């Protein structure tokens, strides 16, 4: 029998994974794995155990939202040998799963985790010791993802983010930011910025460029300036929705390494989880480091 670590976040999404666990374990056993199951107890739980035990296992599978996946990946990135991982998405938005066409049906996702193959994907390194799978962001609405109570997420799903974002509108403040990357730079007052490696962000495909590769060693960046007039705000929204529309207030770029310096310390979000409040962030693309099992079309 092959060894497996299976992390389960039972509270993610609408907690539907609870009723699927026997079917999932049956898939694992049928594929010749002897799974050690751990029900996550807190945000850092999976990260700690993945770091402690991941180097001695054949496969790690996690079930939860993007934050749960982030914890597992963050735990194994420092290992001498990074084990293959599988992902059973059960969160509210599941942006990463959308990008790689990982099945939303738990049993099919479990089958992909034990039998699927795929190229190694890029992972983002944030500072010295933090990582993200698909997005690092600051500014307007980003705090919503980790401040929205889990109970509200479970009841309303993706709509919970929209409702909490509306509540945050009055508190939006611009940040004085200077950013530089491989072949470019920008400076000014921004209300939002994100570095992504995803075809969907916060459940919206329009936030990401039309052509995104998770294997090219490049991030996609989007910085939004503080609108000066209602017309500026309209132009920004139009640019984001159309994606290809040029707009000086919604600036897009691609890069493998980005350095962002703010006038004051600002909070960052990594894969929907709080990533710390800092003044300077260095973000690097670790090209092709994560072996992820998934269905062939991913």
UniProtKB/TrEMBL annotation:
Which biological process annotations from GO are given for this protein? phospholipid biosynthetic process
Keywords, alphabetical? Kinase, Lipid biosynthesis, Lipid metabolism, Magnesium, Metal-binding, Phospholipid biosynthesis, Phospholipid metabolism, Transferase
What Gene3D superfamilies does this protein map onto?
Answer: 2.60.200.40, Probable inorganic polyphosphate/atp-NAD kinase, domain 1
Matching InterPro entries: ATP-NAD_kinase_N (IPR017438), Diacylglycerol/lipid_kinase (IPR005218), Diacylglycerol_kinase_cat_dom (IPR001206), Lipid_Phosphate_FormReg (IPR050187), NAD/diacylglycerol_kinase_sf (IPR016064)
Molecular function via GO: ATP binding; ATP-dependent diacylglycerol kinase activity; metal ion binding
Annotated signal sequence range? none
Domain of life of the native organism: Bacteria
Pfam families noted in UniProt: DAGK_cat
Which Gene Ontology cellular-component terms appear in the entry?
plasma membrane
* CC cofactor: Mg(2+)
What positions does the domain DAGKc occupy? Answer: 1-130
PANTHER family in the record: LIPID KINASE YEGS (PTHR12358:SF106), SPHINGOSINE KINASE (PTHR12358)
* Family of this protein: Belongs to the diacylglycerol/lipid kinase family.
Q: What is this protein called?
A: YegS/Rv2252/BmrU family lipid kinase
**What organism does this protein naturally occur in?**
Candidatus Copromonas faecavium
